Amino acid sequence: MFKFLAIERLAPLFLPRETALLVVRQFVVQAKQDAAKYVEAEHMLLTLAANDESDACILLRESGLTYRELASALHEERRRTLAFAGVEPLDEKQTAATELDRQLTLGTSAKVAIKRALIASRGGRSRRPCIQSTELLFGILQAELGTVPRTLAIAGVDRAALIVRTTNPMSKTTC
Amino acid sequence: MTQTGPSPLGGPADGLAASSALRAMADRLEDAEVERAMREGWTWSQVAEALGVTRQAVHKKHLRRLLMARIDLRRRDV
Asked: Tens-of-pLDDT digits for all 175 residues of chain A?
């Protein structure tokens, strides 16, 4: 599922339809800013945190996680992770290389998060896939290991409590 | 919700995350240094020898990107 799928082809999965394309394009922007070869769950989480109008952004903010704080926690997670191996992050100039002009595809963590969001979105609604922002957040937060839960732990965010909040009924509209 | 699985921080989680982060960093460093070497006039064989892989492997992995970087690769077939 989603194998080699161009990211923009994912847009019909998200609500509202009018802004879905912008949202999935933002996944790619976040991944490229991170010099990543794939779009991963943390890039989708950054996108949700950056979209002030989404319910997911509100939930994240209420949990003390603004876009800036999330970006800072991700940076700290990478620093601590490399420090475990006695390595410091390289200067961006040291790893500056020409990027291949290819469309980024989904990494495993992003695929798993979307699958979980799709399952959550089908509860009590039509069969047509339509993921709302809080459902995508729910899918992302379900991962117990990996970059996102490590980052949340470093930021002092209670992941389990946040998961519960994503499942509470609220005015879910935007992604 | 009770947490039953391993913690995302500490123990093997740190080591596994580090191995993944190191791999990504090594990939980015290789891309940058191969590009730098070719800009400085190294041959495919020299880059391959420095990396400890075959010339064909370097060629296959980096050719498209180096062409995009507009590096003159003529007479580099040694």
From this structure: 665 567 778 888 887 777 888 888 999 999 998 888 899 999 999 999 999 888 999 999 999 999 999 999 999 999 999 999 999 988 888 888 888 777 788 999 999 999 999 888 876 555 677 888 999 999 999 999 999 999 999 999 999 999 999 987 654 445 4
Domain locations along chain B: 32-78
Closest-CA distance of chain A to residue B36, Å? 9
B5 touches chain A (CB under 8 A): yes
**Which chain B residues touch A147 with a CB distance below 8 Å?**
17
B8 with A144: Cβ contact below 8 A: yes
What CATH number has the domain bearing residue A156? 1.10.1780.10
- Whether A95 is in a domain gets the answer no
Helix (H, G, I), strand (E, B) or coil at B70: coil
Please, are residues A117 and A48 in contact by the beta-carbon 8 Å criterion?
no
How many domains does chain A divide into?
1
Give pTM, 2 decimals.
0.87
Q: Are A148 and A173 within 8 A, CB to CB?
A: no
| CA gap A153, A157 in Å, rounded | 6
CB A45 within 8 A of CB A70: yes
Distance CA A49, CA B4 (A): 28
In angstroms, the separation between the Cα of residue A25 and the nearest Cα of chain B is 23
**According to DSSP H, which parts of A55-132 are helical?**
55-62, 67-84, 108-121
Would residue A59 count as lying in a domain? yes
Q: Cβ of B8 and A87 within 8 Å?
A: no
A167 part of contact set with chain B, CB < 8 Å: no
